Amino acid sequence: MLLVVPLVVCMSMMCNACFIADKVQVQITNQLENAEDLTLHCKSADDDLGQHVLHKVGSYKFSFCPPNFIFV
């Protein structure tokens, strides 16, 4: 059993799949009425997706796995 857990975690990391929950899909669209550019910066404790500038009706998409809390 002790070998199975690390193996499953390793396999989920290699295939870019979430271990327990489904991936969360995020889409941000600039719908500002005055046609201004929208500047955004997406960052978490683990990843920094950088700064992005969205022109009118431009979109930015990303996905992530929610945190996995495994208690032994």
UniProtKB/TrEMBL annotation:
Sorted UniProt keywords: Secreted, Self-incompatibility, Signal
Highest taxon of the lineage: Eukaryota
Main location: secreted
Signal peptide from the UniProt entry: 1-17
Record-level GO cellular component terms: extracellular region
Record GO biological process: rejection of self pollen
Subcellular location: Secreted
InterPro entries: Self-incomp_S1
Family (UniProt): Belongs to the plant self-incompatibility (S1) protein family.
Protein name in the entry: S-protein homolog
Species in which this protein is naturally found: Citrus clementina (Clementine)
